[in-house]
């Protein structure tokens, strides 16, 4: 017989073992940590909005919404981000429209200047061209003049001048009753005088000392021209009388003897060679050798387009970008507000207070200057270390700047970071 009593039975309502994460203490701690992380995300989003980094702000707001969607600051920051996005789209469209209008204005101005210069050059060439109608008429042939029956005075071109000093001693002097040596002012009917410029050209052209043949002199009082044989310069002073002229045929033209220094200008010959004062004779027209038509001096010049000196403003724009880079790297909100007057200095200063350090490098920037406006696109990197949480973070960014120049000072009007 066994002395072993009945075995004890285990209770059937044994309680389940609960996890430590389900306790009230653990849930309270996790709730506080989620709220703290949400606050940090909202602060980071606010800093990104102040700096113009809309992508970082959007990412931080999304994380804060996942952690604590009931935070009152979340809705306000989301509204600011939406307004910024809409304003950036409107500003970009306005800038594109202004750029296209400026380009059209420059093209129209260049076309107008080209037309003005072309019209001025065309008018200048039309004015400088010599007028064919003003060219002097050709001198008639000497043989035709000799055979003409008209007693009208004829105009002959002036003969080239010779050295008057060398011929003054050997030139015969006319006396009463004798034929006077022909002189430049007693040819045919008119008094043709050698221009004053002939003596100046004597030394320059020694070959002109050879006299050229001219028509024999005749008295216009006769009905018909009577040719007279003229002596050569080497003959004696006694000349053949006019009445002893040979046949009416035109003789060989004799060289024209230049005017002697002592001879009185403007004298004519009577029938028998008598010398009459020039005051009793009608004034004759004095013609010189035909000259080339002179170009008018009062030709209007082509309009000159004023040249505006072009100043290279790109170095000044890059200097402003360098100041922006230095201000954000040094966490200096006042310096950033000097180059970017539109930034909120107080909000930027609060954002800088949450950072231990920050390094902004714009990298390579493409700058385009158009008058008093400029734009720049930069591809660089930003590195920052927050005061809370620790750990340095670095990411590549793209900056787009819009700048304006007032009184020669460039400032940033808009900055966008992606």
Quick tags:
418 residues; alpha+beta; Nuclear Transport Factor 2, Chain: A; two-stranded antiparallel sheet; 9 helices; 6 strands; 35% helix; elongated
Write up this protein:
By secondary structure, this protein is α+β, with helices and mostly antiparallel strands. The chain has three domains: 23-127; 158-289, no CATH class; 311-418, Nuclear Transport Factor 2, Chain: A, CATH 3.10.450. 35% of the residues lie in helices and 14% in strands. The strands form two sheets. It has a four-stranded antiparallel sheet. The model is unreliable at 149-157, 159-182, 184-195, 197-204, 206-210, 234-246 and 260-276 (pLDDT under 50).
Number of domains: 3
Number of strands: 6
Instruction: State the share of residues found in helices, binned by percent.
Output: 25-40%
Give the biggest beta sheet.
4 strands, antiparallel
Cα-based radius of gyration, to the nearest Å: 56 Å
Distance between the termini: 93 Å
Question: Helix and strand string, N-terminal first?
Answer: HHHHHHEEHHHEEEE
Strand order of the largest sheet: 3-4-5-6
Give average pLDDT, whole number. 69
């Amino acid at each position: 017989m066994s002395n072993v009593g009945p075995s004890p039975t285990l209770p059937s309502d044994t309680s389940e073992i609960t996890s430590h994460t389900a306790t009230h203490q653990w849930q309270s701690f996790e709730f506080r940590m989620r709220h703290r992380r949400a606050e940090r995300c909202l602060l980071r989003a606010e800093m990104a909005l102040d700096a113009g980094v809309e992508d970082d702000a959007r990412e931080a707001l999304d994380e804060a919404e996942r952690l604590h969607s009931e935070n009152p600051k979340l809705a306000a920051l989301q509204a600011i981000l939406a307004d910024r996005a809409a304003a950036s789209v409107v500003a970009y469209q306005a800038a594109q429209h202004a750029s296209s209008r400026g380009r059209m204005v420059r093209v129209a101005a260049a076309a107008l200047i080209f037309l003005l210069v072309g019209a001025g050059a065309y008018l200048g060439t039309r004015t400088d061209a010599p007028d064919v109608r003003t060219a002097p008429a050709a001198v008639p042939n000497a043989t035709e003049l000799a055979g003409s029956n008209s007693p009208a005075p004829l105009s002959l071109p002036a003969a080239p001048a010779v050295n008057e000093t060398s011929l003054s001693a050997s030139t015969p002097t006319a006396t009463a009753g004798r034929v006077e040596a022909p002189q430049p002012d007693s040819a045919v009917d008119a008094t043709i005088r050698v221009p004053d410029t002939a003596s100046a050209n004597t030394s320059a052209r020694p070959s002109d000392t050879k006299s050229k043949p001219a028509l024999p002199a005749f008295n216009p009082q006769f009905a018909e021209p009577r040719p007279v044989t003229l002596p050569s310069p080497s003959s004696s002073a006694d000349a053949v009388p006019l009445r002893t002229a040979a046949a009416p045929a035109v003789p060989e033209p004799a060289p024209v003897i230049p005017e002697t220094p002592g001879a009185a200008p403007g004298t004519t010959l009577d029938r028998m060679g008598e010398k009459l004062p020039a005051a009793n004779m009608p004034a004759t027209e004095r013609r010189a050798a035909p000259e080339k038509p002179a170009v008018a001096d009062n030709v209007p010049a082509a309009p000159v387009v004023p040249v505006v000196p072009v100043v290279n403003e790109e170095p000044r724009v890059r200097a402003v970008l360098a100041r922006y880079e230095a201000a954000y790297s040094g966490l200096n909100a006042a310096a950033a507000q000097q180059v970017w007057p539109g930034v909120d200095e107080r909000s930027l200063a609060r954002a800088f207070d949450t950072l231990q350090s920050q390094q902004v490098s714009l990298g390579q920037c493409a700058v385009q200057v158009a008058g008093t406006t400029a734009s720049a696109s930069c591809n660089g990197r930003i590195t920052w270390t927050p005061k809370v949480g620790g750990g340095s973070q670095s990411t590549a960014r793209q900056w787009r700047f819009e700048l304006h120049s007032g009184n020669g000072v460039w400032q940033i009007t808009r900055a966008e970071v992606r």
